[in-house]
Design a protein that fits this description.
This protein has two domains: 3-161, Rossmann fold (3-Layer(aba) Sandwich); 165-246, 3-Layer(aba) Sandwich (Rossmann fold), CATH 3.40.50.2300. Helices cover 48% and strands 13% of the residues. The protein has a seven-stranded mixed beta sheet, with helices on both faces. The radius of gyration is 20 Å and the shape is globular. It is α/β, with parallel strands linked by helices.
C-alpha cells in the first residue's frame, strides 16, 4: 500500500476513555478525508463525545470501502473531494451490501458531486465551515436513519434535483397508490422534516411516522428520501418558491 493510500485503523488510546455502557451505545464512525490533519481534527472532536466512536480513518475512496467492509461503521463521514475513487461511487458501493449512512462534507456549495452522491444514497450533507455542534447533531440524525442537509444547501439542492430529474424517477401515476396520510408524509419529507419531526407534526409515534415513510417509498419505488423530495415537487404535491412567485407575477400587457 502506498503512502497516498494511508489507512489508519482505530487506535487503542482514544481522546477520552469510555465506560462499558458508553462504548456499547456509541455511534460507530469512519472518517474518510485525504488530509491527515483534518482526519485528526475530526477524531478529536468526535471522540470527545461519549456517544461517538471513531472505528477507522481512510485517506482514499478505495481505503474507505475496504475499511467499511472490515469495521462496519454506522456512519461514514466523507469529504466530497476524497482522493481516489470519487465520493459518488464510494457512496454507491457502500450502500450495495450495507445500511451505513453516508455523511458528506463539502467545501463549496456549488460542488456538482454532492448532487450525484445524494442520488446515490447519501443522507447527510454539510459545508465544511459548519459549527462543530452542527456536525455532531447531523451525524446523530443520519445514524438514526433520517436525512440531514445543511440549511444553507437544502433549498438549492431541492431546486437542482427538481430541475435535473434522472431517468427512472417514480412515475406520477403512482400518486394514486398513496393514502391521504402517505401523501401528507411525502410532503413533510419534501419540506425537510425528519421522522421525529413528522411524528410530532402528525401526533403519532416515531415508529408510525417511519412506517408511513417506508410505505410511501415502496409504493413509489423510491430508493431514498431524496427521490421522495423530487417526486413531491415534480407532481405538484409541494410547490417551490420560484413557482409561487411566477404564478403571482402579473400578466404582460398586450403589445
Amino acid at each position: 500500500m502506498t503512502t497516498g493510500e494511508l489507512i489508519a485503523l482505530h487506535r487503542a488510546t482514544p481522546a477520552r476513555q469510555r465506560g462499558p455502557a458508553e462504548a456499547l451505545a456509541a455511534t460507530r464512525v469512519l472518517i474518510a478525508d485525504g488530509q491527515a490533519l483534518v482526519r485528526a481534527g475530526f477524531r478529536v472532536l468526535l471522540e470527545a463525545e461519549p456517544c461517538m466512536s471513531v472505528v477507522a480513518e481512510a485517506a482514499t475512496g478505495e481505503a474507505a470501502l475496504e475499511l467499511a467492509r472490515r469495521t462496519r461503521p454506522e456512519v461514514v463521514l466523507m469529504d466530497a473531494s476524497l482522493p481516489g475513487l470519487d465520493c459518488v461511487e464510494v457512496t454507491r458501493q457502500l450502500l450495495v451490501d450495507s445500511d451505513v449512512a453516508v455523511m458528506l462534507l463539502t467545501a463549496a456549495e456549488s460542488d456538482e458531486r454532492v448532487f450525484a452522491a445524494l442520488r446515490a444514497g447519501a443522507t447527510g450533507l454539510l459545508v465544511k465551515d459548519a459549527e462543530p455542534a452542527e456536525l455532531l447533531r447531523a451525524i446523530q440524525v443520519v445514524a438514526r436513519g433520517d436525512a440531514s442537509l445543511s440549511p444553507a444547501l437544502a433549498r438549492r439542492l431541492i431546486a437542482e434535483l427538481v430541475s435535473r430529474p434522472q431517468p427512472g424517477m417514480p412515475s406520477e401515476g403512482l400518486l394514486d397508490d398513496l393514502t391521504a396520510r402517505e401523501r401528507e408524509v411525502v410532503v413533510l419529507v419534501a419540506l425537510g422534516l425528519s421522522n421525529d419531526e413528522i411524528a410530532e407534526r402528525l401526533v403519532v409515534t416515531r415508529a408510525t411516522a417511519k412506517t408511513h415513510v417506508s410505505r410511501a417509498m415502496i409504493k413509489l419505488h423510491a430508493r431514498d428520501r431524496a427521490q421522495l423530495v423530487v417526486f413531491a415537487y415534480e407532481t405538484g404535491l409541494v410547490r417551490s418558491r420560484t413557482d409561487d412567485a411566477r404564478d403571482r407575477r402579473p400578466p404582460l400587457a398586450a403589445a
